[in-house]
Every structure is written in C-alpha cells, then in structure tokens.
Amino acid sequence: MSEHDQHPSQPVDDVPQEAWSGVHRGPLRAGEWVRLVDGKGRKHNFALEAGKRFFSNRGHLDHDELIGREEGFTVTTSGGGDYLVFRPLLSEFVVSMPRGAAVIYPKDAAQIVAMADIFPGARVVEAGVGSGALTCSLLRAVGPQGRVSSYERREEFAEVARRNVDQFFSAPEGSSHPAWTLTLGDLAEALPASGERCDRIILDMLAPWECLSAAADALVPGGIVCAYVATTTQLSRFVETVRAHGGFTEPHAWESLVRDWHVEGLAVRPDHKMIGHTAFLVTARRMAPGERPPRKTRRPAPGAYGPDYTGPRPPDVPQEPVAPADE
Ligand SMILES: C[S@@+](CC[C@H](N)C(=O)[O-])C[C@H]1O[C@@H](n2cnc3c(N)ncnc32)[C@H](O)[C@@H]1O
C-alpha cells in the first residue's frame, strides 16, 4: 500500500493529520499560513486565500501564484520586490500570531520543554494560557497521546489562545488538538476542583506562589513544577514559597541569554543587538507524600534571612532576633 493510499483524504506527502505536529509538507494550500521575507528581513505572515491579493510597499502579489507550489521559493511582486516564501516554523508562528497577553519567547519555551522534561505522553498543566504560545510547544512535545490542560482566568485571552492554537495545529472547524483542554478559571481554585493529577505544571503568571499549594496537590511524586517570572522580586518570592512548602526539592533558578552571531568572511562577531531580558525560570521536583528533602548542610549567606527579610521562610531557618535600636 502506498503512503497516499494510507491517508486518502490528504495530499500526497503531507504529515499524517493524526500526528498533530502543526507541520505540513507538499504544495501550499489555501487556508495555510505562509511567511514572506524580503531582502531586508521584513516579515509578512498571512493565510492563503484563492483570489486574494497581498500588498506591500513594492506592489502586489496574487495568492494564487503561491497556492500549489512547494514552499522554499522566491516570488516577485508587481513592483519588483523579491520575497522568500516558506510555511512559518513554530518559533516564527508564535512571535507573529495575534496576542492577548505577552507570549513566552521560543528561547524560553525551548528551555521549559527541555528542563521541565516535557515528554511524549506527559500530562501537563499550564496556567495562564495567555496567547497560547507555550501551549503550542507543550502540545507538540506531549503529542496526541499526552495531555495539556491549560487554565486561564481571562475569557478574552482564552479566546485568543484558542484561535492561535487551533490555527497552528490546523484543527478542523469546531475541534482542537486531541490532547488539549482549556478551562476558564483561576488555577488555584479550578485545578483542585478538577481532581486532575499531572506530571508537570508550568506557571506563567504574576503571582505563581498563589498556585503552589494547588500544584503540589496535583503533581505526582517526581513531578516538576516550573515557573516563569519576569522580575527578581517574583523570583525570590516563588523560590522561598517552594522552600517554605517543604514538599519539593531545592528549587533551581536560571535565565537563558541567546546571542546571535554575524558570520561574514573575516567579520565574525556577536550581533550588536540581542534580547537582554525576558524572564527567569525556576524548577523543583515534587517529593513523595510526607517526604521532605534533606536538611541543607550549607548555612544561608549572612543576612540572607536577616531582619530586613520579610518573605516566606524556609522551615529550618529561624527568625533572627531584631537587634535593639541604638540609644
Ligand atoms: C503572560 S500571560 C501567559 C502567556 C502564555 N504563557 C503564552 O506563552 O502565550 C499570563 C496569563 O496568566 C493569566 N493568569 C494569571 N493568574 C492566573 C491564575 N491564577 N489562573 C489562571 N490564569 C492566570 C493571565 O490572565 C494571563 O493571561
């Protein structure tokens, strides 16, 4: 039996729909998104529509000229502008799709998938869904046999996310990726109410410490909680809340900096521009019920939990007596 016979409803060479990868092969079709890039690196993303025209500052281009061709070609507009044509990659789609809330950038999504150990078949909880950027990476990593339960408390963001995720995975009208559920509500209340158990929990929200207790109850022993926070004050509060909870391993906090390079003949050097800051990441593993991580043998740095420290306190770090004020 040929590949075509196995999937008679699909064009030759396409990735089987049941893979839910968001990737298509073969000729470009109406309804698919394409990405046009000009010589200066300017990008235009749009859905192909028979009979429609794309306009740029260098004239126009009929979509019909693109439909039916294999991606990876150059087209010229009526005004002489050359554009490279490809289907957008996941990393390109998420930075160009419509946004409700700020998205997790590909450099951080990649860290989350690797360091929070998202695997095919995993049961993952994420909140908030925001614009659905991380959701696309999570769904791709767990595959159709896994589960991604996304929670979002703002209906308008949930709607944006649903459109983006369905668009990326080319979900047929009225359906979504089979591994995905999207629940409207606050994770701290909706997750316990669901009774859901999971392997991984990703928190991307202003106050992830408010959801730690719900996350701890839902995670299986050995499961991972991962938080993505933009500021050092959030980082500190989340890490200390994890320590104070006592049912997790010592949190690991880090950030990723990606620097592009200019490589041209003898001019080989870092790019002048880079994304200086997105957010910090923290992971910790869930201990088995009733178990505690070993006591730290290293004492906290002097003053780390001194009188000026007002945040959550690790169980084995007593409050330091406040020194009497000088007369
Ligand atoms: C920065 S956005 C998430 C972006 C998303 N990760 C992405 O890559 O597109 C943060 C979202 O968390 C939602 N949120 C904040 N606290 C929440 C909570 N306790 N439960 C559910 N959603 C929450 C906000 O409404 C917002 O949409």
Automatic annotation (TrEMBL):
Enzyme Commission designation: 2.1.1.220
UniProt GO MF annotations: tRNA (adenine(58)-N1)-methyltransferase activity
InterPro entries, sorted: SAM-dependent_MTases_sf (IPR029063), TRM61_C (IPR049470), tRNA_MeTrfase_Gcd14 (IPR014816)
GO cellular component annotations of the record: tRNA (m1A) methyltransferase complex
Binding site for S-adenosyl-L-methionine: 131-134, 152, 186, 204
Every tRNA (adenine(58)-N(1))-methyltransferase catalytic subunit TRM61 C-terminal domain range: 95-264
Homology family: Belongs to the class I-like SAM-binding methyltransferase superfamily. TRM61 family.
Protein name (Swiss-Prot/TrEMBL): tRNA (adenine(58)-N(1))-methyltransferase TrmI
